[in-house]
Amino acid sequence: MQIMQNKIALEEHYEMFVDTTVMNLLAESEGFDPDYLADVTRRAQDIDMRVEEMDRNGIGTMILSPSPPGPEMVTDAGRSVDLARRMNDHAANLVAKYPARLRAFAAVPLQDPEKGADELERAVRDLGFVGALINGFSNIGDEDTALYLDEPQVEPFWARVEQLGVPVYLHPRPPLPSMRRAYQGYQGLNGSAWGFNVETATHALRLMLSGLFDRHPGINVIIGHMGEMLPFQLPRVDHRLRHLRPGTHGNHQKLLTEYLRTNFYITTAGVFQTSTLLNALQEVGTDRVLFSVDTPWESADETCPWFDTCPISENDRWKIGRTNAEQLFGFKHVKSHGE
Question: Hey, which residues are catalytic here?
Answer without folding.
Answer: 294
